[in-house]
Amino acid sequence: MVDRKLAGIMAIALILSSGGFSFFVGEKAEEPVEILNEGWNIPLNVQGNFELPITEGRYVYSLGFVVREPLRRLELYFATLENSSFETDPDSSPVAGLAGVHGLGDLIATVQKYSTSSLARLGKPEFNLSTPGAEYTGLAIDLSDHVGPVAPDEIRYRLPTFHAVLLNSSGRVNQYYRGFPDFYLNREQAILDITIQKNQNVTRFSKRVTQQGNSLPMEDLPPTAHLVFDELEKEDQIFLTIAIDSSRPELSSVINPPKEAVIHLVLMYINEEHQSTMASLIYR
Amino acid sequence: MIPVMLRSTGLLLSLIFCLSLGPTIGTECEQTSPLVLIYCQDEQGYGEDLIEILRDDGGIEAEFLVLTDSELLKNMIYCPHVKLLITVFNEAKQVDLGEHLEYFFRTGGGLVGLGFSGWRATTLNASEKVYPLNATSYATGRYDREKGVFTQDLYVDQEHEISDGLGNFTAYTQKIIMSLDRASGKLLPVEPSGELTVVYREYSKNAPAVIAYRDSGASVTIGGFTGNSIERAPTHYRLFTREEGFRRLLTNSANWAWKNENRYVATLSSACEVYQTAAADGAEVIEDVESEREKRNSSALVRTSIVLVLMVLGIAIVIRTCFLGGGEKEGN
Predict the structure, then answer these.
(1) Which residues contact B290 (CB under 8 A, 6 or more apart)?
(2) What are phi and psi of B12, to 5 degrees?
(3) Least confident stretch, A87-96, A148-157, B83-92
(4) Which residues of chain B are within 8 Å of residue A270 when distances are taken between CB atoms?
(5) Which one of A9, A174, B24, B303 counts the least CB within 10 Å of its CB?
């Protein structure tokens, strides 16, 4: 008799725990994508920052992630911005060199008045940037959709439509960056190759197209650094690499002479919503 | 966290405010006010004075934006809402804007250029195709000690809306730029492809000083009025922005360019179409996602119901078997 009741209690406990597991654990939401790797293989300088050597060398940005739930659309936007304000010393005065940012504030306020759905992308532009010396919060502002319908293609991709301000830990504007929505600065010269892989399907763009025909010429690269993946399935894997040659001159059409630091940004949007922004600060 | 951090920076507060409006901004693309864009090289205050003059006149109903940074101007020239672009180049240095001004004019835009806008080395081809002065030289005016300003006498060459209510007048400007052959000292002819009217000439050199020009777009080139914000300097912009002759010249020029531009309606209409297509595409994605989410939610509800029913049934069976059923047997 005692054994039967004990067995009954254990059976009920088992049923309840199985049901509970099903409710509380089985339904737990996962992140829609899991980042497997992200970053540059650029060597660090003595301060611990990425610094591109001036000698010839191949340096690669890589991003890999696995999809954890079916996604209607995943988009990646790339941008490379040059320091356009003042020195990159984190302790520098937030007042110096802010004239450009002042103009930017007015510009955004005006654009916002005219904004249409294409500018909804401004809705969540924050990112974090960690360097050995300081932690920053950044605001990324992309106006490329805004000028897109009007500017001719040959001009559009040379417009510095991407902006970012960095705020230091006390919330003060510390630096202002601007640049282009592109995989890296001066793509014709600096980028050696770009590989985009979805599961087993690999597309490779290279400066050196081999006769085997396994690479496309760089000219075939989309003019905008905007990658769209539609109808992704659970467990789909995406890998991307951007290889640059550090010795190639990075001629800046924004600032002359070119400034010493760039921010490389990758913005991820899932189903039209901003998911995350990955930022790297690179010294040159 | 971010809004708290920005509290100390008024500018960025407004920036954050603007950003926060993002998702709710309307879709009435074609009903918005036109924009007058003012590029005033390195002198924000000068640009703001121009806005004040145009607002006081009331002939132009628009939003106004002053930019002093040429890179930011490049962003805004292509904004579909720009109906009038006013450029003030205060220095004779080259600025990488010529091709953008050309494009704006070629697509029908209205422009008013002051200072070195028609200076060859500053705006390159735009100094012929947009602001057809093609200037390489300048004449310096007389210094009026009493008023502390430089002056140049301008007389009407061809009657035009721009000279209405103004007539011959003395301009408070240090320089008038002109196209001059240094060897012969003669003025070089400008040969534009469109309809050019020399509205004013400078008296001593007989050089074109104000030109109205129509081709694809409409422009007014005013070959003077460079300014700076150095107080007590005879070139301070406020010496002429408060002076009636300049104010009338500016408003007449802006009103004429505003009326004769051909860009605004066409550009805005086609841009709105692109925006709407993009918006529809985005809405379709969101709709698909919502529909998929609803499907998932209903299947989750079914699954939950089944689990609940199975749990209740299981517990009932256990109770019957282990507790109630066992008791009956014991009683027998």
Answers:
(1) none
(2) -75, -20
(3) A87-96
(4) none
(5) B24
The domain made up of B32-262 has a fold known as Rossmann fold (3.40.50)
Contacts of A283 (CB under 8 A, 6+ apart): A45, A49, A50, A51, A52, A88, A260, A261
Q: If DSSP codes are grouped into helix, strand and coil, which group holds residue A278?
A: strand
Residues B72, A122: C-beta atoms closer than 8 Å = no
pTM (2 d.p.): 0.80
Q: Is the pLDDT of residue A15 over 80?
A: yes
One-letter amino acid for residue B56 of the chain: D
Residue-by-residue DSSP string for B101-153: HHHHHHTT-EEEEEEGGGBHHHHTTHHHHTSTT-B-EEEE-EEETTTTEEEEE
- CB-CB neighbors (< 8 A) of A106 in chain B: 65-67
pLDDT (tens digit per residue) in B246-256: 999 999 999 99
The interaxial angle of helices A2-20 and B264-318, nearest 10 deg, is 180
Q: Cβ–Cβ of B318/A15 closer than 8 Å?
A: yes
For the segment B34-69, what is each residue's pLDDT rounded down to a tens digit?
Answer: 999 999 998 999 999 999 999 999 999 999 999 998
Nearest-neighbour CA in chain A from B30: distance (Å):
9
CA dist B215 and B197 (Å) reads: 12
pLDDT above 80 (res A242): yes
Task: Specify the pLDDT at position A40.
Answer: 92
Residues 63-92 of B with CB under 8 A from A: 63, 65-69, 71-72, 74-76, 78-81
Mention every residue, 6+ apart, whose C-beta is less than 8 A from residue A215: A193, A204, A205, A206, A208, A209
**B10: its two tokens:** 């008024």
Nearest residue to B38 (alpha-carbon basis) of A88, A106, A168, A139: A106
**How far is the C-alpha of A55 from the C-alpha of A43, rounded, in Å?**
12
Question: Searching chain A, which residue's CA lies closest to the CA of residue B286?
Answer: A271
Cβ of A105 within 8 Å of Cβ of B6? The answer is no
Q: Is A28 on the interface with B (CB under 8 A)?
A: no
Are the beta carbons of B275 and A254 separated by less than 8 Å? no
Residue to mutate among A115, A129, A174, A256, with most B CBs inside 10 A, is: A115
Q: Please answer yes or no on whether B100 and A103 come within 8 Å at the CB atom.
A: no
**Residues with Cβ < 8 Å from A253, sequence gap 6 or more?**
A158, A160, B96
B45: amino acid identity, one letter: G
HSE-CB at A149 with a 13 A cutoff on CA atoms is 21
* CA-wise closest residue to B175 among B135, B145, B213: B135
Tell me whether residues A122 and B19 touch, CB distance under 8 A. yes
Give the SS3 label for residue B22.
helix
Residues of B in contact with A112 (CB under 8 A): 18-19, 21-22, 25
Chain A residues whose beta carbon lies within 8 Å of the beta carbon of residue B69: 99-100, 103
**Tokens representing residue A175 in the block:** 């630096």
Backbone torsions φ then ψ of A283, nearest 5 degrees: -90, 150
